[in-house]
Write a structure and sequence with these properties.
2 copies of one chain form a homodimer.
Chain A: H1 20-37, H2 44-51, H3 55-61, H4 65-76, H5 89-103, H6 107-122, H7 124-150, H8 160-177, H9 184-197
Helix pairs in contact in A: 1-2, 1-4, 1-6, 4-6, 4-7, 5-7, 5-9, 6-7, 7-8
The structure holds a DNA duplex (30 and 30 nucleotides).
DNA sequence: GCTTGACAAGACTATCAGTCTCGACAACCA
DNA sequence: TGGTTGTCGAGACTGATAGTCTTGTCAAGC
């Protein structure tokens, strides 16, 4: 979890200490509301009320609603980005894509992710945080592809960034539009066609 | 342009007639504001004021802000979805993808599309209209692929819907996140890898 | 000229993010 | 023990904005 609140003051700390229970209660409340929301917006008032906390306590530690939401999501959601390394690109890629797709099937994660994505459309601050969030995942996938290319399993001039975006593009497009499934069979078809479409010969 | 307002009453029409000038002025104003907005929300008040019209006149003919925005966009934006048919899949696909990507380079269309996409994240009504909007384009691309498959340029068991979603997935993902370009070179690389990755042999 | 529906203007309601204020309270220090 | 400081819960307040309602006016047709 990245701490998005203010950095501590330079002077030695005096005064009352931060209430960790309240801190956790806020994240818990946000996550619960996100999980139950299924896309409908989650309000700060609701988070504060559910956590039994004043609004000011929320804003003392997070700069915006979006920051709270993303923090709640990344605090609990599977933080570890998959990084399989079996020595075979096709297998690694299949696993990576299938794992990514599978995360969207769990309704708790899914509705939280959906809500955060929707809020990000309006909240520039959250959009920035989301860019970091997605960049981490893109990098992990790119490294996986890079290893495969070094083994000669991809053409030397294959456009790795484009392949990455084909994976995450399909993922977000189907996830947000919801017109087609994100199942394992699809994941494997996608992985296979990407390997075949970018080999050397 | 689809008419999103109420259906006319069954009784013969009496009273004052609809002011077509005002109708057009609203769409013009919405389009101008969308084009200038570059992602920032466009308000109904601004549309009405710019059009020199009362808010009620807007709501008499459109059910929500989103409906006005999408109507303005589809009214003027390139309505004709590209449907090249040269007899060669690779060429057709390259043209289709390049044309699609290119539309996002024109700042007027781009900021309008971006704003509508952002509004759609919050407005379920607009989200539904957007689904129709995108479905039209997906169908056109799928037909193009289907023709290629019948000519044997794609494997019989190629997953056309997945190929379609790779194109539009990359498009929207890069368009909304803005982390990588949507240029012609990228379009052609994408088209080529999709053909190669889904051929029969 | 009467009825009816469209019109511009704008007041009004409701929602929600984010700020501000207040009195209480806890940690540390002299 | 009492003063200083920062955190706490509570909630009033501001500002933005979608959407509704009201009012007085105007045009089309009977």
């Amino acid at each position: 979890m990245q701490e998005t609140g203010q950095t501590p003051p330079a002077r030695p700390h005096t005064g009352r200490r931060r209430n960790e229970a309240a801190h956790q209660a806020i994240l818990d409340a946000a996550l619960h509301l996100l999980a139950d929301s299924d896309g409908t917006p989650v309000t700060i008032d609701a988070i504060a009320r559910t956590a039994g906390v004043g609004k000011q306590t929320v804003y003392r530690w997070w700069p915006s609603k979006g920051a709270v939401l993303l923090d709640a999501l990344t605090d609990r959601a599977d933080q570890d980005v998959p990084g399989p390394d079996t020595g075979t690109l096709r297998t690694d890629l299949r696993t990576f894509v299938a794992t990514t797709f599978d995360a969207a099937q769990h309704s708790t994660t899914a509705s939280a992710l959906r809500t955060v994505a929707r809020e990000a459309a309006r909240d520039p601050h959250l959009a920035e945080l989301m860019r970091t969030f997605t960049a981490t995942r893109r990098t992990a996938l790119r490294d996986l592809l890079s290893r495969g290319r070094e083994r000669g399993e991809l053409a030397d001039d294959a456009d790795l960034d484009l392949i990455v975006d084909q994976v995450y593009g399909v993922f977000w497009y189907r996830f947000l539009l919801g017109h087609a499934p994100l199942d394992t069979a699809t994941a494997e078809r996608l992985a296979d066609s990407l390997v075949t479409g970018n080999t050397a010969d």
